[in-house]
Amino acid sequence: MTGPLAGMRVVDVTTNISGPTLTMILADLGAEIIKIERPGTGDDARGMGPFMSGEGVYFLHINRNKESVVIDLKKQDGKQIVYDLVESADVFVENFRQGKAEQMGLGYAKLKAINNQIIYCSLSAYGQSGPQKLQPGYDAIAQAETGIMGINGAKDAELARVPVSILDQGSAMWGVIGILSALLHRKHTGEGQFVSTSLYETGLFWSSYHMLSFLATGEEPQKNGSGHTAFAPYGAYLASDTYIMIGISNQSLFERLCRVLNSMEWLSDQRFRDNKNRVENQYILKEKIELILQRETADYWVTELSAAGIPSSKVKKISEVIDAKQTEALDMWEQVTHDTIEDLRLPRLPFQLSKSTPKVKTASPKLGENTDYVLQSLGYTQERIAELSSSQVIAPYEKELKNR
């Protein structure tokens, strides 16, 4: 493996979305990720559909560039394999419910005693302290808990979560930043350390603008739909065929919009003379804008608005984004070889480095695909591997998942 983290070994006991996303980022940056999975079913994400040739799309995306080792961590011999891995590892990552790692014999104190330079990352639902620290949680639960769901969607619409895993994958990003910071600290001091983050902390940080708004005004933030509390006109406006997202954040852009819509009289209208007044009268302004936009298609107006330097976009379907010209120009999709999926494409990390850019090199591993190889790298003999396999401590390669 090449990349800025080449030569770094990460022991990964995470499941579902948050932890595997964290280790995926490290993997794409070149780290060796040894993914420990339970016998039989493996990571829960393996069973999350929809499926491509029997492979769950969640798992395909966030488990590329990893090695799968099946170990029964309930057995002492299984724990010993993890301890042996930790001796030569740089990073250990878990996303268990608070306290479970300690119960399993995989807590920070235990692993630090084996390798005092280990960077141990714990990614939990609610963080390391507080009355809810022992509670389980998922992305949607954390969205509700941190106020994000309460302000999402249109004013009179049914409650809705943000339909992407913003807190799972957001906490994964913070975990990576924490790990990289800890690695830099270790480079200077030789010290390992404990790194923690959580879905709850991530949700608080993402919604901090709205919390500060409440502290400033005493008014409860409301749902904005596609709009904005601070700017107008700002949001989705209906053209003759579909919606256009338009963002006006200053007076200059509003003047350009008036020019494109041939409505210069709005500039002298007291209701729209400045941003403060436009926010107060945004629904009146929205009606006026849509009466004009509905004369032409969204594509027509986006062309006109873009030519005037006004931030805008047709509100696109996912199917329109996959092969969009901008997506293609950025080389966002990387072709990956897979045993059963033809022409598998996976999205790269959303940043590039001019000297050591991240790379998707291998598809997600089959369950237990690398068990023998990893144990051999630790010095386990074929006889010992066979012994562990016969006692069901390990599983070299499980072709069929029980939950499929």
From TrEMBL:
Molecular-function GO terms, alphabetical: CoA-transferase activity
Transmembrane segments: none
Listed SUPFAM superfamilies: CoA-transferase family III (CaiB/BaiF) (SSF89796)
Gene3D superfamilies: Crotonobetainyl-coa:carnitine coa-transferase, domain 1, formyl-coa transferase, domain 3
Swiss-Prot/TrEMBL keywords: Transferase
Database matches in Pfam families: CoA_transf_3
Source species, domain of life: Bacteria
InterPro entries found in the cross-reference section: CoA-transferase_III_domain (IPR050483), CoA-Trfase_fam_III (IPR003673), CoA-Trfase_III_dom3_sf (IPR044855), CoA-Trfase_III_dom_1_sf (IPR023606)
PANTHER family per record: SUCCINATE--HYDROXYMETHYLGLUTARATE COA-TRANSFERASE (PTHR48207:SF3)
Name recorded for this polypeptide: CoA transferase
Organism: Cytobacillus kochii
